[in-house]
C-alpha cells in the first residue's frame, strides 16, 4: 500500500511543532504517526502531502494507486482492515470527517463513503498530550502482541501488572518503582531509567532515551529518541533529541526536537483561578480562549531556555528561540527570539545554524541544506 499522509489544512493548528514537520510526523504514544502506519503495515510506503516549504524534505510519493489518509488520524486495526477493502474512488469517513481515500489523486466530492467509528483524531495541538494515554495504551497492545520483553531486574518494585512493562534489548532499569495501574510502561532499545526513579504509567521511551536519577514521572508521558529527562514531568510529549536533564516541573506540555531546558526550569500548567486557559494560535495570530484547564508550555524545535526559567500557564515558544532571565517571559515567544521578560532581539539565522549544528553534531547528525531552508522559511515568516 502506498500511504500518503495529508496535512488536511491543519499545518498551523499544531504549530509550532508543525512549523518544521508535517502533521503526519508528529509524535504521541509510542511513535510518530508515520512510524505507527509502518508498524501496522510493514510493507507500506509512507509519504506526505504538506506545506510547499516542507515538501523537499518530506516529499509525496505518488503512484497510480494511492491511499490518501488524514494525517491527524491515529490508525487502528479496524481502519487498516477497512482501507484494505476500499475500491478505487471510495473513501472512509468518521461522521463528517474524511479519514482515507483510495485513488490516483485525492477526490472526495464524488467518492462513495464508508463509515467508521471510535478513531482518535487530533483536532488541536493540546490533543497530543490530552489523548496520549489512550493512544499509548493502544500502541503498547498492538506492538507488544506476540513479543517477549527482556527480563526486568529484581532490584525494581512493581505495582500493578508486570506484564504491562516491556523492555527492549539493551534497556536498563534498576532500583526503580514502576506502577502500571494507570497505564503500560515501554522502555525502548538501549534506553535507561536510572536508579531511584518513580514512574506511574503510561510511559513510552524510544531508543536511547533516559530518565535521570530519581526522576518522577506521571503518565501519560512519551520520550522520543535520545531524549534525557529529569526532575518531575506529568503528561508531557517530547518529540526527539531534547533534554530536560535536571530538576524542575513540566506538566501537560509539548517539546519539539533539539530543545534544551535549563536546570530548575518550571512551567505552570494551571491558572490560579482554575479557569480555562488562553493560548497563542498560529491561525488567528492572537491569544485565544480554549476549552482546556491544564496546559503547560509548547516549544518548537531547536528552542532553549536558561536555568531557573519560569513559564506561565499555556506559554507557546516558537522555533529556535532562546529564553532566559528572571521573572516570567511573555505567554507567546516568536521563533528566533532571544531574550526574556526584559524584551527580545532577533536571533540571527547564521548563529541559529551554528547552534543547531553544534547540538546535532554531538549525536552524529548533520544540519542539511533542506533543514536550513526550512529554518530560513520559519525565520522569514514566523519570527514576529
Question: Can you characterise this structure?
Answer:
The protein has 384 residues and is α/β, with parallel strands linked by helices. The protein has 2 domains: 2-123, Spore Coat Polysaccharide Biosynthesis Protein SpsA, Chain A (Alpha-Beta Complex), CATH 3.90.550; 128-381, UDP N-Acetylglucosamine Acyltransferase, domain 1 (3 Solenoid), CATH 2.160.10.10. The protein is built from 6 helices and 37 strands. The strands form 8 sheets. Strands 11, 12, 14, 15, 17, 18, 20, 21, 23, 25, 30, 33 and 35 form a 13-stranded parallel β-sheet that branches. It has a 6-stranded mixed β-sheet with strand order 4-1-5-8-7-9, with helices on one face. A hairpin with a 2-residue loop joins strand 2 (27-28) and strand 3. The longest helix has 13 residues, at 132-144. The radius of gyration is 21 Å and the shape is globular. The mean pLDDT is 96.
Please give the CATH class of the largest domain. Mainly Beta
Largest sheet: 13 strands, parallel
Assigned CATH superfamily of the largest domain: Hexapeptide repeat proteins
State the CATH architecture of the largest domain.
3 Solenoid
List the helices and strands and how they pair.
Elements: E1 2-6, E2 27-28, E3 31-32, H1 33-40, E4 45-49, E5 66-70, E6 73-74, H2 77-84, E7 90-94, E8 97-103, E9 112-115, E10 120-121, H3 127-130, H4 132-144, E11 157-159, E12 165-167, E13 172-173, E14 177-179, E15 185-187, E16 192-193, E17 198-200, E18 203-205, E19 210-211, E20 216-218, E21 221-223, E22 228-229, E23 232-238, E24 243-244, E25 249-255, E26 260-261, E27 266-267, E28 278-281, E29 286-289, E30 297-299, E31 304-305, E32 310-311, E33 315-317, E34 322-323, E35 332-333, E36 337-340, E37 343-346, H5 349-361, H6 369-381
Parallel strand pairs: 1-4, 1-5, 7-9, 11-14, 12-15, 13-16, 14-17, 15-18, 16-19, 17-20, 18-21, 19-22, 20-23, 21-23, 22-24, 23-25, 25-30, 26-31, 27-32, 30-33, 31-34, 33-35, 34-36
Antiparallel strand pairs: 2-3, 5-8, 6-10, 7-8, 28-29, 36-37
